[in-house]
Amino acid sequence: MKSAPKDGSLIVIKAVSGGDRNDVLFEGLSNWRSEDKPALHDPLTGECFSKERTITGWMRHDAPYRIPGIPVGWKEYKEG
Fold first, then answer.
1. How far apart are alpha carbons 7 and 37 in whole angstroms?
2. Who's near 42: CB < 8 A, 6+ residues apart?
């Protein structure tokens, strides 16, 4: 994955579970980017249980979440 572009370009990534079976957990469009996550508070007590933070990594192209699993391969995405 060292050769995968980390400039925000969409690519097709394959990620596995790791361990003995190495089940494919994700294979699809992704890009390297950062997403800001707001702090989360308990609605009853007001207690903060997750501080505001920025996550960076291989993110699903259609969601503000990292891809699941361990990235093991990639290929260029060609539209159309």
1. 21
2. 48, 49
**pLDDT tens track, the chain, 80 positions:** 899 999 999 999 999 998 888 899 999 999 999 999 999 999 999 999 999 999 999 999 999 999 999 999 999 999 86
* CB 27, CB 73: distance < 8 Å: no
* Spatial CB neighbours of 38, under 8 Å, sequence gap ≥ 6: 52
Structure tokens at 35: 């997403």
Say if CB 10 and CB 19 are below 8 A apart: no
E strand segments, the chain: 11-16, 24-37, 40-41, 48-50, 53-60, 70-76
Q: pTM surpassing 0.70?
A: yes
